[in-house]
Amino acid sequence: MIPTTKWIQGLFCFALFFSLASAANEKFQHWYPEFGFMFDTILRTNCTTEYAKYLTGKKSFSYLSVYRFTGAVWTNQLAEPVVNCILISTSEYVKASMASAGVLLGLTPTILAAVGSSADETAMLFAVSRRPLLAIFLAGGSPAVFPMRSFEYQDPLRLLRERRGRVYPPNLSNRGLLCIMVVEYIVALAAVANVVTVAYQLGLQVTCSFTPETTYLPLLWAVLNLAIHTSGATALYFRVRVKCQLPCNTPFEYLRIHFTPVAMHRPYTIELVRETYWFIAFNWFTSILTVCHVLYGTLAFSSMLFISVKDSLQIIARLMVSVICCRIILMYEFATL
Known about the structure:
Distance between the termini: 20 Å
Radius of gyration: 23 Å
Strand order of the largest sheet: 1-4
Oligomer: single chain
Largest sheet: 2 strands, antiparallel
Structural class: mainly alpha
Number of helices: 13
Mean pLDDT: 83
């Protein structure tokens, strides 16, 4: 678990550093297509003074004193005048469309959470299947987490119990299982790439009304999701003990398990141990993180400007495809246990 946790922390720090580094003076250069030509024309005809000042990157109290009555503060004093100037020259029809897009985008984290997986489901892939690498990819490709109720401790093994009338995966040869595993990793990596691309483009091509100078909010929302799944997996490690025919005592054996289909790990022995205070603490912390993540996503997405309903629907569709693909892979892994 420790190497995986460090890997997650390294990925998080890299993504956050990359997004923060890209924040300097990159706003107002890229737009979503439907209204982009309008905003670009307004920027270069009516807002040249404000935009030129924004490109300098130099803040001053004298400049702030001019625009503080329009909503500028020290941190956003360069970006706020540009946003305000563009909005003044924008038609009411376009503003109404942006408002509708904000409502739609504000619902996106909740909608994706309802479709996606919960932290305790992904934790099963961490702790029981012993495939944290695939679990990380599936978590990264499904940026919203289904909420959990705090201090509600469900049976971790309920997902593995037999269900009457269930459909079982077909019996495949070892070569067939390996082919499916390769497809799983390819699809999961494609889902992660799709989510990262969408979040990065959102940061550059839209502006959040409460922090117009930043570009990293969508990407930060996507990356913070990994902390929730890591916390849920840590809680499950304090609750179960797993044994299977494949040993996991050396780094090579640990790496081999990541690329061995779950069906080839059998037989499994899964033992529930007594709850500990560590389990309760991490479980509660995971549920709180999930709620905060949904709130943060709702705040960031609902405040987005300079995007139309049509463009926002394309964004939601792309995120939904990633979430559904990751959900299918996770459910298949459970079915083969």
